[in-house]
Amino acid sequence: MRPLVKICGLRTDADLQSVADAGAHYGGLVFFPKSPRAVDLDTAAALRAPDALKLVALVVDADDALLDAIIARIGVQMLQLHGHETPERVAAVRQRYGLPIMKAISVATRDDLPAIATYEAVADQILLDAKAPKGAILPGGNGVAFDWTLLQGRVWSKPWMLAGGLTPENVAEGMRLTGAAQVDVSSGVESAPGVKDPALIRAFAAAAGL
Ligand SMILES: O=C(O)c1ccccc1NCC(=O)[C@H](O)[C@H](O)COP(=O)(O)O
């Protein structure tokens, strides 16, 4: 089956077009002001996504006011919750907006894996990302990978996406080792923090099997 690719941290119409041209399925918009990839509501609302691209709004412990504004102003097809949202909060957000929810789970060691089943019970998708390095400002988008062998042999009850430190060079190996059918990347397709590189996006999508 054709893999699904998500390119996260898009800020311009040109970014969106490059991602769609590369055949990626999802484009992520980061609503986290401290990120070099952050978009504000006005910028995001003015973006024009190609029809084929599904927009994912990425938020970190967002309150209802921010989520209400995103839903009201931007045509997003999925919400990515990338903070410390509890299972109850995930369920409440899903119920309130009626959109698919992807819950990010940070992984460093085997001890982080039980959270997967907990969130599979309430979310539509799981995104497995590397735990942020100590002192990092961002909870994701740090270009750090985790030990992919931790996921080997796992039986999944929901669709899931592999993320964290993926690049055009290592994405095929990550998919092979984990069996991931969906992959997500941000810094691995940038020429500078927050600046997406169309050639790297194409290379990543091709290496992922698109
Ligand atoms: O990308 C960010 O700046 C970001 C900020 C705050 C929370 C999450 C963020 N990114 C989450 C993503 O979905 C990234 O694509 C994922 O963490 C992988 O990033 P990278 O390791 O840079 O490929």
UniProtKB/TrEMBL annotation:
<keyword id="KW-0822">Tryptophan biosynthesis</keyword>
<dbReference type="GO" id="GO:0000162">
    <property type="term" value="P:L-tryptophan biosynthetic process"/>
</dbReference>
<dbReference type="InterPro" id="IPR001240">
    <property type="entry name" value="PRAI_dom"/>
</dbReference>
<keyword id="KW-0413">Isomerase</keyword>
<dbReference type="InterPro" id="IPR011060">
    <property type="entry name" value="RibuloseP-bd_barrel"/>
</dbReference>
<keyword id="KW-0057">Aromatic amino acid biosynthesis</keyword>
<comment type="similarity">
    <text>Belongs to the TrpF family.</text>
</comment>
<comment type="pathway">
    <text>Amino-acid biosynthesis; L-tryptophan biosynthesis; L-tryptophan from chorismate: step 3/5.</text>
</comment>
<keyword id="KW-0028">Amino-acid biosynthesis</keyword>
<protein>
    <recommendedName>
        <fullName>N-(5'-phosphoribosyl)anthranilate isomerase</fullName>
        <ecNumber>5.3.1.24</ecNumber>
    </recommendedName>
</protein>
<dbReference type="GO" id="GO:0004640">
    <property type="term" value="F:phosphoribosylanthranilate isomerase activity"/>
</dbReference>
<dbReference type="InterPro" id="IPR044643">
    <property type="entry name" value="TrpF_fam"/>
</dbReference>
<dbReference type="InterPro" id="IPR013785">
    <property type="entry name" value="Aldolase_TIM"/>
</dbReference>
<dbReference type="Pfam" id="PF00697">
    <property type="entry name" value="PRAI"/>
</dbReference>
<feature type="domain" description="N-(5'phosphoribosyl) anthranilate isomerase (PRAI)">
    <location>
        <begin position="5"/>
        <end position="205"/>
    </location>
</feature>
